[in-house]
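Open question from group meeting: does this chain pack into something compact, or does most of it stay loose? Before anyone orders reagents, we agreed to write out a predicted structure and look at it together. Recording both the input and the output here so the notebook holds the full record.
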Amino acid sequence: MDPATIAWGVIVWPAVYIGWSIYKKYKAEKEEKESEDKK
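C-alpha cells returned:
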C-alpha cells in the first residue's frame, strides 16, 4: 500500500464518519424542534 492510500484510510474515513454522525445528530435535533413547534 502506498502512503496516499494509508493516509486516506487513516485521515479521511474517520473525518467522514465523525462528520456524518454529527450531521445525523444535528438533523434529528432540528426535526424534533420543528415537530415541537407545530404542537
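Observations to bring back to the group:
The first helix runs from residue 3 to 38.
The two ends are 56 Å apart (CA to CA).
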